[in-house]
Amino acid sequence: MIDPSRADTALLIIDVQNDFCPGGALAVAGGDAVVAPVNTMAARFCNVILTQDWHPPGHVSFAANQPGKAPFETIGLPYGEQTLWPAHCVQGSRGAAFHRDLRQDLAQLVVRKGFRPDIDSYSAFFENDRATATGLHGYLRDRGISRVVLAGLATDFCVAWSALDAARLGLDAAVVLPACAAIDLDGSLDAQLEAMRAAGVAVEAQLPAGVG
User: Fold this and answer.
1) Residues with catalytic annotation?
2) How many whole angstroms from its chain centre is CA 160?
3) Cβ-Cβ contacts under 8 Å for 62 (sequence gap 6 or more)
C-alpha cells in the first residue's frame, strides 16, 4: 500500500511538460489530464521530485538531425537502438517548460535529463546507455528514501524506464496509472506494463488511498 506520509517514500513526477501535452511537439493523448491527479498526490507526499526533458537543439534523437530519417524511425547508436523523435523539449523553449498548472512549488528537486547531445535519456536515473547516472539515486540514498511512486509522461517510455531502473537499483517502485498517459507506439504500452510487473514494480490502477 502506498503511504504518502512516509519519510522514506518519494513521488517522482516525470516530464509533465508542454511538449508532451496536447498542442506540443510530441503530444501524448490526454497528457494534460495527468496534471490534476499529479497535483493531488504531490500535496500529500512529504518528498516530491520532478524530472524535466532538456535537449539541446542538435540532439541526436531528433529526426531532423538525422538526414533522410523521419520521426518514429529507429537508428543504431553506440549505446543501442534509438527511436527518432520530433524536436521537443528544447532547452529554454516554451515546450520544455512544465505545464502551467503543475504544482512545481511542491517539489524539492528538479532532475534535468537528455541534455547531453549524443545520448538520449528516458529514465530519471540513467541515460540510455544504462550506465551514465543522473545523480538521482545518490540523492535518494542520502535522504534515506527507499520507495518511489511514479506518475507523469509517458507511461511506456520515461515513466516505465524510470520505474524499471528504480527496481534494478533495489528501490521499491510503484506506477500510478490514473496519473500517467502513454504514447503506445507499436504496442509499447502493453510491453512495458508486462516488463514492469515482471521486474516487481507495482502497477496501481487507482490513486493511493485518501488521495483524490
Assistant:
1) 15, 113, 158
2) 7
3) 55, 84, 85, 86, 87, 88
Q: What is the pLDDT of residues 113-167, one digit of tens each?
A: 999 999 999 999 999 999 999 999 999 999 999 999 999 999 999 999 999 999 9
- Residue 205 identity (one-letter amino acid): A
**How far is residue 5's CA from residue 44's CA, in Å, rounded to a whole number?**
7
Q: Residue 34: phi, psi to the nearest 5?
A: -80, -15
Residue 108: closest CA among 136, 82, 76: 136
CA dist., res. 23 & res. 89, Å (int)? 13
Per residue, what are the HEC states of the chain?
Answer: CCCCCCCCEEEEEECCEHHHCCCCCCCCCCHHHHHHHHHHHHCCCCCEEEEEECECCCCCCEHHHCCCCCCCCEEEECCEEEECECCCCECCCCCCCECCCCCHHHCCEEEEECCCCCCCCCCCCECCCCCCECCHHHHHHHCCCCEEEEEEECHHHHHHHHHHHHHHCCCEEEEEEEEEECCCCCCHHHHHHHHHHHCCCEEECCCCCCCC
